[in-house]
């Protein structure tokens, strides 16, 4: 069934915005049921005029037990969009765009991040609907690397290509976790030193050098389902 996030509930109905109504019209929903996601819960609904009438509540939770945060350096525009989509599909609860020493690309050089924020939010919502998420993950404002390393309440993990392979990332991470993903040039030695001083665990992802978006997917796959 098609799934849509909604923000407004009146008695036994959800108020649908113009975009959702247009989508329902395009797919010719008719009397077929669809799912509305409201306050982290799923509701089976049918269209009644311009509202969604609730016919049943679906008691399912598709989220991790713990908070999974990914801080990823700004990279090339198309690859950043792809990373956002896949991180949502894989269960990230929050995504922090990050500026590091080697951050490059048009999103950073030409101050395009803020201009593209609405599009990024739409990507997150579409990916959350497609992957049957209970929530739309939060996309924060830009953060400096140093500010991310000092965040509290998480097991913090950073990947570095110069780290010894024996320090591999653990499997089945079962706690609040914050992954730090570097840009195309990786993290500088100074940044790694800064991270270590803030009790960030430095790990190896193996012998090969991974793209930023590939590293992000690899690291989030280590979270216990």
Automatic annotation (TrEMBL):
<dbReference type="InterPro" id="IPR046886">
    <property type="entry name" value="RsmE_MTase_dom"/>
</dbReference>
<keyword id="KW-0963">Cytoplasm</keyword>
<keyword id="KW-0808">Transferase</keyword>
<dbReference type="GO" id="GO:0005737">
    <property type="term" value="C:cytoplasm"/>
</dbReference>
<dbReference type="InterPro" id="IPR006700">
    <property type="entry name" value="RsmE"/>
</dbReference>
<keyword id="KW-0489">Methyltransferase</keyword>
<dbReference type="GO" id="GO:0070475">
    <property type="term" value="P:rRNA base methylation"/>
</dbReference>
<dbReference type="GO" id="GO:0070042">
    <property type="term" value="F:rRNA (uridine-N3-)-methyltransferase activity"/>
</dbReference>
<keyword id="KW-0698">rRNA processing</keyword>
<dbReference type="Pfam" id="PF04452">
    <property type="entry name" value="Methyltrans_RNA"/>
</dbReference>
<comment type="function">
    <text>Specifically methylates the N3 position of the uracil ring of uridine 1498 (m3U1498) in 16S rRNA. Acts on the fully assembled 30S ribosomal subunit.</text>
</comment>
<comment type="similarity">
    <text>Belongs to the RNA methyltransferase RsmE family.</text>
</comment>
<feature type="domain" description="Ribosomal RNA small subunit methyltransferase E methyltransferase">
    <location>
        <begin position="64"/>
        <end position="223"/>
    </location>
</feature>
<protein>
    <recommendedName>
        <fullName>Ribosomal RNA small subunit methyltransferase E</fullName>
        <ecNumber>2.1.1.193</ecNumber>
    </recommendedName>
</protein>
<dbReference type="InterPro" id="IPR029028">
    <property type="entry name" value="Alpha/beta_knot_MTases"/>
</dbReference>
<keyword id="KW-0949">S-adenosyl-L-methionine</keyword>
<dbReference type="InterPro" id="IPR029026">
    <property type="entry name" value="tRNA_m1G_MTases_N"/>
</dbReference>
């Amino acid at each position: 069934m098609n799934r849509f996030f909604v923000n407004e509930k009146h008695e036994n109905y959800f108020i649908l915005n113009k975009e959702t109504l247009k989508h329902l019209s395009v797919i010719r929903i008719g009397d077929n049921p669809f799912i509305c996601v409201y306050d982290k819960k799923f509701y089976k609904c049918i269209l009644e005029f311009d509202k969604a009438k609730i016919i049943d509540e679906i008691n399912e939770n598709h989220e991790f037990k713990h908070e999974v945060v990914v801080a990823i350096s700004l990279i090339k525009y198309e690859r950043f969009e792809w990373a956002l989509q896949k991180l949502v599909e894989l269960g990230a609860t929050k995504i922090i765009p990050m500026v590091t020493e080697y951050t490059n690309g048009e999103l950073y050089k030409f101050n395009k991040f803020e201009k593209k924020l609405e599009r990024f939010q739409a990507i997150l919502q579409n990916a959350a609907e497609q992957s049957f998420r209970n929530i739309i993950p939060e996309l924060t404002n830009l953060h400096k690397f140093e500010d991310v390393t000092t965040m509290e309440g998480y097991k913090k993990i950073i990947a570095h290509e110069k780290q010894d392979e024996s320090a591999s990332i653990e499997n089945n991470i079962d706690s609040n976790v914050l992954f730090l993903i570097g840009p195309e040039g990786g993290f500088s030695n100074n940044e790694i030193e800064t991270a270590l001083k803030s009790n960030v665990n430095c790990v190896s992802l193996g012998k090969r050098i991974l793209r930023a978006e590939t590293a992000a997917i690899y690291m989030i796959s280590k979270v216990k389902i």
